[in-house]
Design brief:
The protein has two helices and two strands; from the N terminus they run ββαα. The protein has helices at 26-39, 44-66, and strands at 2-6, 9-13. Strands 1-2 form a two-stranded antiparallel sheet. A hairpin with a 2-residue loop joins strand 1 and strand 2 (9-13). The longest helix is centred in the C-terminal third of the chain and has 23 residues, at 44-66. The radius of gyration is 13 Å and the shape is globular. It starts with a strand and ends with a helix. The relative contact order is 0.20.
Length: 70
């Protein structure tokens, strides 16, 4: 669960846990993806939502590759 407080507007982001995923660096990827969205003029809430989806997909794909599934 991640919580965004944007000047009193609170948004809770929930996502699945990816067991066995290598998490090292995922916070840096998340912050870079959020910054990228903001740089494109996307709202903070949508930037966070898109960044979280990007990181989640990256973790899923990495886990599948590690398990020989992808």
């Amino acid at each position: 669960i991640d919580v965004l407080d944007d000047d009193g507007i609170v948004t809770v982001f929930r996502a699945e846990f990816v067991p066995g995923a290598k998490l090292h660096g995922s916070g840096c990827i998340l912050s870079a993806a959020i910054a990228s969205g903001l740089g494109k003029g996307i709202s903070l809430q949508d930037s966070v939502r898109q960044a979280k989806e990007f990181v989640l997909n990256t973790l899923r794909n990495a886990r599948q590759s590690q398990n020989g599934e992808g």
